[in-house]
Amino acid sequence: MHYVILRDDDTNALTPVNRLEQLYLPFLERGLPVNLAVIPEVRLDARRPDGGIERFLPEGHRPSEGTRRMEENPALVAYVRTNSGYHVAQHGCFHDCFEFDRVDQKAATHLMERGARRLLEAGFERPRAFVAPHDRFSRSGMAAAARRFDVVSTGWFELGRQPLAWWPHYSWKKARCAPHWQVGSTTLLSHPGCLLSRARAPKTILPAIRRQVEGQRLTVLVTHWWEYFDAGQPVSAFIDVLHETAAYLANTPNIRVISFGELARGGVPLS
Ligand SMILES: [Zn+2]
Question: pTM for the full model?
């Protein structure tokens, strides 16, 4: 059996409901779980590493001071909560640039607690999985995430960014060329880059996904809802690929799509 976790990053209080619906209805209708990595309290002038305004903020958005909490968008919260196929992971706190790459353990813990509290205030359950903005952790940030969450999903793992006490585990993972590993009760997941990305030619995406999914036990597929729209207009060729991916995942007998929560409950092999 091959297992797949679909992770969509950057849902926040300014995300239009109809965009998520347009992308994920074919998954929800087929009973395929969609893991939304939700920004609990989005910064209204959140910046990308290159200094530009983050594209998960609405088109025409005028950057301003302050933040917006998920609970301030009750329609979005209700939509996510009433569709049982959506599973919420915590995506940082404010989604500041490299938010967990520049913090000591105390600051990381404080941000994680604030973010978790914002999700609880919106009516979501306490998240079991954590995704850092831009998939970047300092050593302290990683240690803080592993202490608080059952699952940490990121891009890849570098020795220098792992807590010293983890180095023996890390060496063992490295020796086995294992993409995912476990430290204590926390599962640490890598992913093969954003295969579902507009930076790739549409016709190459599904073949790359098939190779990846069928080549290993568990694959995390990462995408970003805002990439499927250009100046507010849907990018049909890319949305079609996403929906073809849903059909492929649902119709292939030896593939199971799971949530981070199901992984945390145990019973899913990592390799
Ligand atoms: Zn993000």
Answer: 0.96
